[in-house]
Design brief:
Helices cover about 35% and strands about 25% of the residues. By secondary structure, the chain is of the alpha/beta class.
Length: about 475
């Protein structure tokens, strides 16, 4: 027996089965890269996504048929990306908007100025309002035939042959449209933004049966919906106070489990972190703190594709390992600005300390160490914000497979780094929740007890954090107009 997981990321989606021992099998994936029709605009074809989801699910089920009975389905997804579709046909009413889409920056600033409510353009709220105006009002579509949701909602609809319209608290809480308890939508916020509350999905627990995947063989129950970063947190068994993971993908996302005490607001705090719903079970809501790095693996892409200093991501490790240190070279990875703790959108990538003796290896090592320093910035911020002890850090994502980077992260944070046994721990988290939802595992504690790190890397010597902070100060406020933005 096993759990089927559908994991929908920003640029690809995949399906796999997870067995009772926590092992992952029969992984199938397809690319689903978004489109960028103009600078700042990020769209994707939700129907193509739906078709791809069904293809990878059917391939995985067919491959697993001889050995695995599917007992439940879990869905984990890129958060805040927004889809609008027809209630009667299940077909999208227009291009979906990716979470990176910035077309509603003006609306966010207007809402802040008029009503004192801070919304970020990467949240669902202003995206949903824009889509209603552009796709529904402009085409005089009956609002009673309209459904709006995040990717988890749309995929659940696809798998249930358009019978379900649900989301979970972890996804609802990052939309900017729900109440602080993440159990219901806010009538005031919906009215203020012009979002018909009746178009939004029912908010359910992250774990528990919500309906059947009738579009799949055997119609297995759908028993988990969860945002990708929260899924990674659970997938790395971070369900005790202070347990922390960082996912190093295109960007970097740190999450620390904080417990059952609800925050007083969803807003960003003075340390640059946010409270988020980690997950909700049948009894209570579990919370976490989140810190964000805007560019992590993107910097490796930059080395390879633009500077052509390396031919592959793996070569970044090979080159960096050729030198003992960066010889005083420091790189601030602010290609899109700086997230936690600074939130300076006008900061820019900065390379300092170059001499005539600086080699390609020194530059590549400085880039890896710069990303590690940003990881340490996030750890320090979440410790200050939560006052919790973070004794070790668990990591997943593509960069977790880079030995030089992992050692640099240990040296920057002064903590042991536990590397996930699978590169994308999101799949495990959704599986654990979906399995608990049908008693495949008796509890989340039992499910996560199957997790064991692939390796543990300890600090060998500390990176120079004082020099790092000086480098960051020089990278900041490079474009003052952008640095003044505050979401």
């Amino acid at each position: 027996m096993s759990v089927l997981v559908i994991d929908i990321g920003t640029s690809s989606l995949r399906a796999a089965v997870v067995r009772h021992d926590g092992s992952l099998h029969f992984l199938n994936h397809e690319n689903c890269r978004p489109n960028t029709p103009a600078p700042g605009l990020v769209e994707f074809d939700a129907q193509q996504m739906a078709d791809a989801v069904l293809r990878v699910c059917l391939r995985t089920i067919e491959q697993a048929r001889a050995t695995d009975k599917i007992v439940s389905v879990g869905i984990t997804n890129q958060r805040a990306s927004t889809v609008i579709w027809s209630k009667s046909t299940g077909k999208p009413l227009g291009p979906a908007l990716g979470w990176q889409d910035l077309r509603t920056v003006g609306e966010c600033m207007t809402v802040a100025a008029k009503h004192g409510i801070k919304l970020a353009p990467n949240q669902t709220a202003t995206k949903a309002a824009w889509m209603l105006r552009q796709y529904v009002d402009a085409n005089k579509i009956d609002i009673r035939d309209v459904r709006i949701g995040t990717v988890d909602s749309f995929v659940a609809a696809v798998l249930s042959n358009n019978q379900l319209h649900t989301t979970d608290s972890s996804n609802a809480a990052v939309t900017g449209l729900c109440e602080l308890n993440a159990l219901s939508w806010s009538p005031r916020l919906c009215e203020l933004l012009g979002v018909d509350i009746n178009t939004l999905p029912k908010i359910v627990a992250s774990s528990g049966v919500i309906g059947n995947a009738t579009a799949l063989p055997g119609s297995p129950p759908i028993a988990a919906l969860i945002g990708d970063q929260q899924s990674s947190l659970i997938g790395q068994a971070c369900i005790t106070s202070g347990a922390t993971k960082i996912t190093f993908g295109t960007g970097g996302m740190l999450n620390t489990y904080t417990g059952q005490l609800s925050p007083t607001k969803f807003a960003r705090n003075e340390n640059g972190t946010y409270p988020i719903v980690a997950y909700r079970d049948a009894r209570q809501t579990h919370w976490a703190s989140e810190a964000i790095m805007l560019a992590a693996g993107t910097n490796i892409d930059w080395l390879r594709e633009d500077l052509q200093l390396i031919n592959s991501p793996e070569e970044s490790h090979e080159l960096a390992a050729q030198v003992a240190d960066s010889a005083g070279v420091v790189f601030v990875p602010a290609l899109f600005g700086l997230g936690t703790p600074h939130w300076d959108y006008g900061a820019r990538g900065t390379l300092l300390g170059i001499t005539r003796g600086t080699s390609r290896s020194h530059v590549v090592r400085a880039v890896l160490e710069g990303i590690a320093h940003r990881g340490a910035d996030m750890v320090e911020s979440v410790v200050a914000a939560t006052q919790l002890e973070v004794n070790s850090i668990r990591i997943d994502g593509g960069m977790s497979r880079n030995p030089t980077f992992v050692q640099a992260l240990a040296n920057a944070t002064g903590r042991n780094i536990e590397v996930s046994p699978v590169t994308e721990a999101t799949t495990l988290g959704a599986a654990f929740l979906a399995g608990v939802g049908v008693n495949f595992w008796s509890s989340l504690e039992q499910a996560t007890s199957t997790w064991t790190p692939a390796k543990i890397v300890s600090p060998t010597n500390r990176l120079d954090r004082a020099q790092w902070h000086e480098a960051v100060s020089r990278a900041r406020n490079w474009i003052p107009a952008l640095s003044s933005l505050d979401f």
